[in-house]
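This entry is passed on directly below:
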Amino acid sequence: MNIKTDDEFLVYMALGEESYMKEYYRVIEIDSTLSQVTGKLLRRTTADDKNIGLGRCELEGGIEQFALEDIYPVKE
């Protein structure tokens, strides 16, 4: 995957058996040794792209780490 600092990426999060939300992040750090990326949460949407806000994550800084294999680059 060709991703670099400041790129946006997408993570799918399950909300139940048949529902999910999309979380959009901006890359703030890439650790190629561990194949991980650290991102800052930008927005959350439902599966059909309706904005659902950031909720508690916004108060906690919204920074998370993901395996490179679990993220999807956002095409601009």
